[in-house]
Amino acid sequence: MNKLQKLYTGATAAGTAALLSASPVFAQLGTLDIPQQGYAKSVGSLISSILNLVMLVAALLVFMYLILGGIEWITSGGDKSKTEGARNKITSAIIGLIVLAASYALLQLALTFLGFSGGLEEVFNRPVRPITQ
């Protein structure tokens, strides 16, 4: 087992132990108010929530890839091929973060130009008006 695998195994074990030991604490926080109609009140809020979740997961994955590249750089020990691989991972993660931020910014910019100030929720919740002659 190399150093990186040992580090990953240790971090995974520590995270699992922390999550399992914290469950009694979370149980004492109080009651959870579950709405009767469901979380999403409309198609627009559902799509907006899904988009926000996807963006959050993508950003977390990009940051994890960036951290993995940094760990590989630190543990490369001066080996040129390992350092080059780590540098490529860091570069890919930064490009991925830029693409992710740019796609979200372009979506918001397009919605603003089209007159939707409320985001995607407003796009799907705006009433359709018939065309009159």
Please specify the SSE layout and strand pairing.
Layout: H1 3-27, H2 43-74, H3 80-113, H4 120-125
Report on the architecture of this protein.
- With 133 residues, the protein is an all-alpha fold.
- It has a domain at 41-125.
- It contains four helices and no strands.
- It is elongated.
Helix-and-strand structural type: mainly alpha
End-to-end separation in angstroms reads 75 Å
General form:
elongated
Helix content, binned percent: over 70%
Average residue pLDDT: 76
Q: What ranges have pLDDT less than 50 throughout 5 or more consecutive residues?
A: none
Number of helices, counting only DSSP H or I runs of 4 residues or more: 4
Say how many strands there are.
0
Radius of gyration: 22 Å
Describe the biggest sheet? none
Order of helices and strands: HHHH
Strand content: under 5%
Q: Which short descriptors sum up this protein?
A:
133 residues; mainly alpha; 4 helices
Q: How would you summarize what this structure contains?
A:
It is built from four helices and no strands. By secondary structure, it is mainly alpha-helical. The protein has a domain at 41-125.
